């Protein structure tokens, strides 16, 4: 069992009592002050096609104005999976049921810069990286959020891992996805 846990990461979610979200959008100045005091939780997605390629976006804004996951900040009351579903609709115009997402890894990140003023205060994130395989119909519906991303591409996880120009966190997540794929293949061979 312990060996299997090494290769099959999950994200547990617990609720005690009745939680009611009081989420509101904060003006950038107020949100910046909150970022100075809190670690932001994110649901980031390694979306794949049936060939196993990953869909990446080239972000326009800090903290990562380069190739990155689609995804972003979770809202109070969301699970990582429901957050990813909301973010897929908002950033890509694609509806993905939360039950289709699988956990790949969890990461902690510290960024030197951020979009909100004062930009040089940076931000601290805790990311839950999830994956789902898109259907061809879903792929054809994709419209990336033009305010946040300048372009997009499909790329193999192997190419991300071996190219040091990608952010270390993205390379780590792609490597964890490959490890998850290997574990699934081993399980299929053993049960065959």
Index terms:
192 residues, alpha+beta, 7-stranded mixed β-sheet, globular
Q: How does this model look, in words?
A:
This protein has 192 residues and is α+β, with helices and mostly antiparallel strands. The chain has six helices and seven strands, in the order H-H-E-E-E-E-H-E-E-H-E-H-H. The chain has helices spanning 2-7, 28-37, 80-92, 136-141, 157-162, 168-191, and strands at 40-48, 54-59, 67-68, 70-73, 102-111, 123-133, 149-155. Strands 1, 2, 3, 4, 5, 6 and 7 form a seven-stranded mixed sheet that branches. Strand 2 and strand 3 (67-68) form a beta hairpin. The longest helix is centred in the C-terminal third of the chain and has 24 residues, at 168-191. Residues 3-8 have low confidence and may be disordered.
What's this, in brief?
With 192 residues, the protein is an alpha+beta fold. Helix content is 34%, strand content 26%. The longest helix has 24 residues.
Number of separate strands? 7
Beta-strand residue percentage: 25-35%
Mean pLDDT across residues: 93
What is the helical fraction, as a range of percent?
A: 25-40%
Structural class: alpha+beta
The gyration radius over C-alpha positions equals 17 Å
Question: What is the element string, with H for helices and E for strands?
Answer: HHEEEEHEEHEHH
Structural shape: globular
- Oligomer description: single chain
Sheet of most strands: 7 strands, mixed
Number of helices: 6
Distance between the termini: 19 Å
Q: What low-confidence regions span 5 or more consecutive residues with pLDDT below 50? A: 3-8
